[in-house]
Target: ABC-type quaternary amine transporter
Amino acid sequence: MSENNIPFVTSVQEKSDKIVARNIHQVYKIKQQDSDSLTNFEAIKQLDLTVKQGEFLAIVGPSGCGKSTFLDMIAGLAKPSSGEIFIDNRKITGPALDRGIVLQGYALFPWRTVRKNVEFGLEIKKIPEKDRKDISQRYIELVGLKNFEERYPHELSGGMKQRVAIARALAYDPEVLLMDEPFAAVDAQTRETLQEELLRIWEQTKKTIVFVTHGIDEAVFLADRVAVMTANPGTIKDIITINLPRPRDGIRSSAEFGWARHKIWELLQNDPSAANKVKPENQDIADFISPSAAL
Ligand SMILES: Nc1ncnc2c1ncn2[C@@H]1O[C@H](COP(=O)(O)OP(=O)(O)OP(=O)(O)O)[C@@H](O)[C@H]1O
Model:
């Protein structure tokens, strides 16, 4: 190639790149223990990550490594101290309806019924009432809550509330779904059901999903790739491609699943920030990563 053919800009994003985070740093001013003076705490350092269009990317890492902070940055709810995040080549400067967010605590409006919760984003988008009803109905049925439309959140189980939160995030048709430990608060059986339903919905809707979890099994079961973060300061240590076939029903007992699970566990175990924690016999790997973890 002659010199003239060398492009001036070498960092042009690939067409299939949906989210690009470049050189993210996050520094907080925190009070020192025995004095009133402030000191810099480096929560995230030099974090680079690209998420492809339609990809399911999971992020795992020890407690406090910056998973939620980074997700908040993609959501536009937090600003990095330095570095930039782009969606479709546009720099993120704040929250927008191109990103749907599902958090651990459901965050439903207690005074709204299931239907009215799901219609919330549609109201903001000023979708006419008749269309709102049709759209919310479609998503309520997609998450398996037909006949629960007029219930209030306090009349639902944890798993049902989480389904409402997913339906609400999907209903206004964001291109990207950001999920922060969305299934942590439900029992193991419900969690597996919700994981399977999320995959079904993802396959139908072709959204790009970034999914933060403490659960290695959960990450391997769901994701195309798993970004493993390390702490103090938080950054991405490695990205593991999960080459398991889809659909993934029944995959949890396969050797390939076990290999991916072990690989991620090893990466986390070698993290000095987690080194003082020993994985006890028969305890789930997620408990080793964080005391609050659940798979
Ligand atoms: N406003 C803040 N001021 C000071 N430090 C903060 C602030 N917000 C977060 N941190 C620190 O930044 C680090 C990353 O926090 P973050 O919540 O993103 O971690 P996480 O990986 O999501 O943790 P967990 O898995 O326990 O939810 C932590 O050490 C946290 O104490």
Summary: The radius of gyration is 20 Å.
